[in-house]
Amino acid sequence: MGSGTAFIPPCDNAEPNFPEQWRLYYMSERIKTFSNWPFTEDCACTPEKMAEAGFIHCPSENSPDVVRCFFCLKELEGWQPEDDPMDEHRQHSPSCLFIALKKKAEQLTLSEFLKLDLERVKIEMQKQMNQHIGIFQTRAGEVKKKLEELDADD
């Protein structure tokens, strides 16, 4: 495979060994997540346009229109039919490398893909680390409060 050869082969069921996160580089895989998307016709935020902007649909019971960029992990909700997914993505996550790509993910070379995916993994790890730090800080605050209460009792 030369340095100028596209790395990601066409997406079909013959590629089951790709990790799930790698499969999300395929627009067709992202579109599949929009099966219950509330905006499908006569609007700017169709499933196709949402997927093109890097979003996957991850609804909750209270928020049926929550989407998350598979790459930068930015979550957005409160969509209106006239909202342009790419514009919203750029506005809320201007440093997302996926939306800054100058070509389709399927056209990336192996080297380009691996460099890009390394950045995705860094973002994912940073988010997880921040969640753990938040949990630790909450627990540390609870322990501190109990220690202060014990100290006040003396």
UniProtKB/TrEMBL annotation:
<keyword id="KW-0479">Metal-binding</keyword>
<keyword id="KW-0131">Cell cycle</keyword>
<dbReference type="InterPro" id="IPR001370">
    <property type="entry name" value="BIR_rpt"/>
</dbReference>
<keyword id="KW-0158">Chromosome</keyword>
<keyword id="KW-0206">Cytoskeleton</keyword>
<protein>
    <submittedName>
        <fullName>Uncharacterized protein</fullName>
    </submittedName>
</protein>
<keyword id="KW-0498">Mitosis</keyword>
<dbReference type="GO" id="GO:0046872">
    <property type="term" value="F:metal ion binding"/>
</dbReference>
<keyword id="KW-0862">Zinc</keyword>
<keyword id="KW-0137">Centromere</keyword>
<keyword id="KW-0832">Ubl conjugation</keyword>
<comment type="similarity">
    <text>Belongs to the IAP family.</text>
</comment>
<dbReference type="Pfam" id="PF00653">
    <property type="entry name" value="BIR"/>
</dbReference>
<dbReference type="GO" id="GO:0051301">
    <property type="term" value="P:cell division"/>
</dbReference>
<dbReference type="GO" id="GO:0007059">
    <property type="term" value="P:chromosome segregation"/>
</dbReference>
<dbReference type="GO" id="GO:0000775">
    <property type="term" value="C:chromosome, centromeric region"/>
</dbReference>
<keyword id="KW-0597">Phosphoprotein</keyword>
<dbReference type="GO" id="GO:0005634">
    <property type="term" value="C:nucleus"/>
</dbReference>
<dbReference type="InterPro" id="IPR051190">
    <property type="entry name" value="Baculoviral_IAP"/>
</dbReference>
<dbReference type="GO" id="GO:0005819">
    <property type="term" value="C:spindle"/>
</dbReference>
<keyword id="KW-0132">Cell division</keyword>
<keyword id="KW-0539">Nucleus</keyword>
<keyword id="KW-0963">Cytoplasm</keyword>
<keyword id="KW-0159">Chromosome partition</keyword>
